[in-house]
Amino acid sequence: MGITAARGMFLKDGKPYFLISGEIHYFRLDPRLWEKHLRLLRDSGANTVSTYIPWDWHEPEPGVLDVNGASHPGRNLILYIELCKKVGLDLIVKPGPYILAEYELHGLPAWLLERCSPGARAIDQHGNVISPDLMCYMSEEYLTYSFLWYDHIMPVIASHQKSAGGPIAMMQVCNEVGVFQWLSGQLDYNPAVVHLYREFLRERYSAIDAANRMYGTAYRTFDEVDPPKGVIGTRDQYRAYVDFHLFYRHYFALYLDTLARKIRSFGIDVLLTHNIPGWIFGNAAELPMLISTYEEVLRTRSDIVFGLDHIPEFVSYRNAHSDLACNKILAAMQPHGPVWAAEFQAGTREHFVKNDPADMETFYFASLAHGLRGFNYYMFSQGINPSGKGYYGKTFYHQTPVNAGGSVSRLYPVTRNVAAFIKREGEELLRSETRARVVVGLYTPYFHTELTTSQMLKEKRLYIEKIGLSLDPRFVREELFFNGLLRGLQTLNIGYNIRDLETCAEEELLRYRQLWVVTTEFMDAKTQALLASYVAKGGHLVITPAIPVMDNYLHPCTVLTDAFGVRAGKASGPPKVTALGIEEVFCQLSEKQVYASSGGEVVAITRAGEPCGLGIRVGAGRVTALGFAFGYTTDEHLLLIEKILSLDRIRRDAHVSDPDIQVVTRYGTKYTYMFLLNYHNRRKSCTIGGRRHTLSPLSYAIVKKARKG
Amino acid sequence: MGITAARGMFLKDGKPYFLISGEIHYFRLDPRLWEKHLRLLRDSGANTVSTYIPWDWHEPEPGVLDVNGASHPGRNLILYIELCKKVGLDLIVKPGPYILAEYELHGLPAWLLERCSPGARAIDQHGNVISPDLMCYMSEEYLTYSFLWYDHIMPVIASHQKSAGGPIAMMQVCNEVGVFQWLSGQLDYNPAVVHLYREFLRERYSAIDAANRMYGTAYRTFDEVDPPKGVIGTRDQYRAYVDFHLFYRHYFALYLDTLARKIRSFGIDVLLTHNIPGWIFGNAAELPMLISTYEEVLRTRSDIVFGLDHIPEFVSYRNAHSDLACNKILAAMQPHGPVWAAEFQAGTREHFVKNDPADMETFYFASLAHGLRGFNYYMFSQGINPSGKGYYGKTFYHQTPVNAGGSVSRLYPVTRNVAAFIKREGEELLRSETRARVVVGLYTPYFHTELTTSQMLKEKRLYIEKIGLSLDPRFVREELFFNGLLRGLQTLNIGYNIRDLETCAEEELLRYRQLWVVTTEFMDAKTQALLASYVAKGGHLVITPAIPVMDNYLHPCTVLTDAFGVRAGKASGPPKVTALGIEEVFCQLSEKQVYASSGGEVVAITRAGEPCGLGIRVGAGRVTALGFAFGYTTDEHLLLIEKILSLDRIRRDAHVSDPDIQVVTRYGTKYTYMFLLNYHNRRKSCTIGGRRHTLSPLSYAIVKKARKG
Prior knowledge:
globular, alpha/beta, 709 residues, nine-stranded mixed β-sheet, eight-stranded parallel beta barrel, homodimer
């Protein structure tokens, strides 16, 4: 049966299974050392090995395939697969077409680029080829060539998959689809894409008049519709981008679906996977945007399990909230598949990263605390690039557990410690769960901005003031939601869960004492209605920095304010409010939402005395609306979060004498695991439940206890 | 006599003097605790205390001045000054007009903002007020009010300055002038500024026809000239920005000069100072741009000593090159004044900064190694803001050596250690120098981009491809120069000096074995001639990533290529070259400069075999021209730098068995001080000269030895 996924876990032969994998690139190693590397990986306690299969490497000339080393011993993929089986490791294969992996041309053969016409390439908004190696995913030419590659490689994979007695247990479909689009800030204006966009709109609007009304245009047919370009000057232009972002998600879903269906046509039955990048400068605030770009495929193709590329670069209290938040967000969007790290930092590509073994061990155990159910060390083994194949030069990765020559580094024993812990605790650990009394609502439309405003965008296209908005969705989701609320909760040792407001059931939300939603001025009517109903049925909604008063197309939509009997206006002034009795709370924006309401209690006021926070009882529940922007930049912000939580007696998960220590408790069926995490570069001593713990700088401890009664 | 500055040092009563200061804001402390805070500072070993004097605080209503506490005991500045004297500390005062300091409205009184007309405010390119609290520095209205404030406060200061028997030994003129312009990416289009700009051009061009030829315009008089606005589309538009950047520097010089002359008119004779900010996200790559904005005043007003705001946020091998590089750059531009830290991180304003005492001690001692000749702990004492006066809320700074209540933290003993070392070593340390065999040329026009392309610029105005350039000056100076070459040299333990190519003497350069210049495609004829002459006279010039072929206005200017007998062209292709025998050196840009030359040796080739590196003997010297972009992003880059240095037998300053340890040797008259710096979060052992040293994570050691012979 091999590996499957269900109930948020990997299963092997139907039983819960922790995937412990390491990335080893056979094409970057001396074939005489392949077995040595694989044995070192297995001996570290891993059960799986992962590798790309570079198209370029195995098809050096068009139609000349080499998977058995006829032209070069390093091309003997068959031997490598057999060695995996011999050594006793499952194998994850990643045959592209794109592999990236700092391989020249991202793994595409140079001859392919020469053969392909401009029509096979991604095109920018001015009609120019974006980059010779950036193909149009859905162009017939690119797909035809890719399928020729698949025709060659997939039978090899099929004949070595688990069901055929081989070691291959999973396959990744392409690699980080969308990463170039994200980095270049443009989707693709290739006519093949524009055609699909028009089809998408036809499906969505049926009649061209409906689309015209939305965009303020005068198209006669959908075939005339042009995708949006350039900087947004009007709300009509903004509306076109709203749909273009939805199409972007549809387009990636189409591409992955096309590849996956082709893969399945070869009788390949293994679990498929795909990986999502997005840590930048040691912070993952933009990663959830990249998760959101897969939302259509996440909702439609359950046989593709998405994994995260967890490359924090450095381990610190500064980014300690990042992996936890991303794991929770992926879990919300992929409720059945396990949260796993398709690339789990081990070693580094870059010089500005030092991968101290003790730091990494802390990160690895924190990941277990944070609910990771599998990972793939990236890289387990260093590589030396074949001549001319390395993007950054000869040496691929540094400070890996095993170097290219097959000697182990100080990181190797760390991988043993991690695997030993996982094996020892087994299913008990895998089935363990954290507890949360607070749920945070995820609203992915706030993440639909990769083409208009994102960290990596060179030419920003959305200036909110031009279209009369006050809240930039990027600012809201990065600074108020991710680095604000989610970092604040983590700092406070308050366990939380995340739910996707567009897909989760109302009952799910009602299981928690509080629901926090960090908003912009817009939210679709259905989601507004969900929140209103949640409150009516007894929930406590904390909503900030604004109660939305528009839908996602910026048309008036006051489901929430109507339900709460509130009128909302805007006020500007000094960026300070008094809220829940805390004076001079700093606001990250000077504009605030102020309220007029017949009932309810004013819980926050501006310096001018205007009410900018309300506590209102509605139906069986209540709303705390805070119309000002606060992330986590001052002490008072933390205090404010804590005060609001205490309204429902939500307290820190553990009483720790040193609040700098992070505590995560996982509840198994028989045992609890309390993870103590010291993300600080300082020795820490603390008392928890009467017992004293001392933690070295950047270290962890685990307290395992039998559960009572 | 008090404090003066000469020969790169502070002098007190004419003798070399290390300024050890701490910032204490009396207006944020209970007056009953003032003396306690001052005594704690003095007892830590400091000789000086520094404070802002907020205009708003002392002139709560127009014309109602309080400096003796009549309206509020916290306003008793006279008492505070007297206490400084009583306790035995010199005093640095910073009376604004602007103080920033997270004080509401940056220290300006609210009534001033109400009284001032739009004509007193900075204006953006669309004619709008940029922000109500951003005044036009040279508007008559703002200056008139500021001088009224000076009329009140300067006599108080004059009567308490050293020459009058008081403790005041230095004064800062305004605060971080230009920081708002940098953050907002706009100078000021106020008519008063435009008028000065026109005067500046009249001075520069004399005849309007000359200006018209430069800009491709048809103005009839200078009074018609408009300052450049918006995105650069043509080289003509670019040329206008070149002059606008020069004017920007002239404008700041005018403003500081105007304030300084006014200050002197009160008989104030103390040394003046000004502070320069610019660390962002733990890196100071943009700080030198801010130093460059003061270049005119640096060249014209020797009685203002500039200090750096050294706020690294965290201490790490990742930013270890930053403070050293900035110190060297400031020293190059301020050869007579001492390099000092006007704000020397102690405690933190932000939550995302933890100020571990051991880390900070390492940073402080590294600063001594890196040539700092004075500093002001910012903040020495925490403060609690008077109601409504704090920008971020009530509490001002965390983790300071002394908290607002007067208790000391674990950082306090660190400040004692630092002062004790400085006192013990005295003049010997102050007069000590590092040695360097390599000099790096600083060319500040590459930093004249704060209005066109900078990290903080929201609307970037320079897209180099639009005007046919290949090398973005911001990229060159940040990634190739600062984070590339200067980081590489520091990592290699190669001592270097920096010289300002526009002001230094040729003989200065000829003292070194190599001169490295990191270039763009442009450089003025005079500087090109300097470099050519330097080579002719026997210097070894290493020039990369291009030999300039244009002047700063992008007119052809081939002084260098002519002198070297080289023709330079452009080539694109894979970002890899073979250079000095190193294969597959990664290039950070795919475009390269390729050479045709009758003589010389090809030292680098592109993958297509084109020569992109030349070694040429010219006159008594030589040139190594490397026409490709390399910073420090791969191992090979470091190797390449080392190989080039070894051409002139320039070796690492010390043989350390662990290359991760930074070594800086300072040579005094009788002793040498070898500073060993461990910037890594790992215990390190190493052998130097046969002796074994063990360094804890993030720590330092100092080996003092008597000099031989």
